[in-house]
Amino acid sequence: xxxxxxxxxxxxxxDVYIKACEELGRELARRGHTLIFGGGANGVMGAVARGVNxxxxxxxxxxxxxxxVDGVLFEECDEMIRPETMRERKRIxxxxxxxxxxxxxxxxxxxxxxxxLTLKQLGRHKKAIAIFDVDGYYDRLINxxxxxxxxxxxxxxxxxLYEGFVDINTMxxxxxxYEQKDFNILEMKNI
Length: 191
Known about the structure:
With 191 residues, the protein is of the alpha/beta class. It has 6 helices and 7 strands. Helix 1 runs parallel beside helix 2.
């Protein structure tokens, strides 16, 4: 499978996130999956790519052409796609991927997660979405989504759009066994 991993590019984050994401990369490679990611060499992005690369897995980076500063991009990618804009980058990430993992990240990662979640809610794709909740990083995000459901800003059925995980193998088992189903909030009644 082509599995997209969204995540931070910051080198300032705690090592607990780096180590967990390096292991995620190694497990993706062990299971024969291709990493599709934003092409970054640093932070969570770089950690996942290093883990995949360590075990000889396939890596496809997608980074806008304006990312041209030395040391920003992961140089060991099997393929690097260079669109002009961030919007094109997100479209290519979506189109090339069979599933999505949201690893710890900042505003760009939140943007990618909420866009892919919204597109699934609107029936634009049927792919698995997993949240990799390393060291409780996404506990508040998951609680926010549950609170929005409780307060009727989201429908109860939205819980079926994604799953949160703390264990890499359980998360990848979920993705590998995921059965794609039609889901279009605009057409659903009495949810």
